Amino acid sequence: xxKFKSIYKKIKKYDSIVIARHMRVDPDALASELALKEIILxxxxxxxxxxxxxxxxxxxYMGELDKITEDIARDSLLIVLDTPDxxxxxxxxxxxxxxxxxxxxxxxxxxFCNMEYIDENASSTCEIILDLTYNTKLxxxxxxxxxxxxxxxxxxxxxxxVNTSFKTFDLIHKLIKDTNIKFIDIFxxxxxxxxxxxxxxxxxxxxxxxxxxxxxYIKINEEIIKEFGVDSASPGNMINNFxxxxxxxxWAFVSEDKKNDIIRITIRxxxxxxxxxxxxxxxxxxxxxxxxxxKTMEEANxxxxxxxxxxxxxxxxxxxNK
Length: 322
Ligand code: AMP
Hints:
- The chain has helices at about 5-15, 25-45, 70-75, 125-135, 140-155, 165-180, 185-190, 195-205, 220-230, 235, 275-280, 295-315, and strands at about 15-20, 50, 75-80, 100-105, 115-120, 210, 215-220, 250-255, 260-270, 285, 290-295.
- It folds into two domains: about 5-190, inorganic pyrophosphatase (n-terminal core) (Alpha-Beta Complex); about 195-320, Diaminopimelate Epimerase, Chain A, domain 1 (Roll).
- The strands form two sheets. A six-stranded mixed β-sheet has the order 6-7-8-9-11-10. Strands 2-1-3-4-5 form a five-stranded parallel β-sheet.
- The radius of gyration is 20 Å and the shape is globular.
- With about 325 residues, the chain is an alpha/beta fold.
- The structure holds adenosine monophosphate.
């Protein structure tokens, strides 16, 4: 695997650096890019560093993003974070950069940067950025510590995902000890939500279909989104809240997005591997946290069928009959 030292050397070499991450931003992707930008500037104040991509209003508190021009792209090192596949990088002029590095924790999908650091065992991209910082001459202060803590907490779903490790806690321990961040305040920033979303969560709980194989799913159309006064991203925001339910081993929310003429499916599992199924339907992700995009309800139904079969096989293999 590429060494952190090589990443540091490349960062040191370029005066202009653009940091990007995947489309449909989430806290790990956004926190890692904003933190890395500040960490590079702490260490090399004379460099120009840009963090780019489309943000979301609910993450505004984390920081602002930058706009770049074609000239900047041509002159810069591109660092792509948290994105295994080229088609999901949220950046302009992808082909024009002078050099590129990918830093990611998703299962390997394809090679599209000159240097690639992929640690599938890392809990989050923020964990890798923290590890990189502690193992090179990069300098971190309190604000970046807060961002990285937030990203790790979010991507591990509060330290419950399988990739949460001794190393995760070791790094977090050092982070809190060194910077004395008020981490309880960060939980509130991350998890505070409007009552309308909680009401939608109640609707989902009441209306989930649960199969005999332990798959739960629901289809949410635009009328429901309107009725609850939420936005189309809201169902996805609460997918993790449906973990640890006796009768359910995998669960999927199917949301209609008429404006973009697509149907989004967010999938989680506490057992069966699901990312290969997501990949069959224009999606991907982690073994037990994936997403997909399809055009028709027929495709969505096929995906549900595949997931249900996977749950059946999983229970058979594990002799489980919960
Ligand atoms: P989400 O359900 O949006 O929280 O995403 C869960 C995981 O699946 C993340 O690692 C995403 O990057 C990945 N993912 C979500 N949607 C897609 C997609 N359409 N294609 C590839 N990966 C996806």
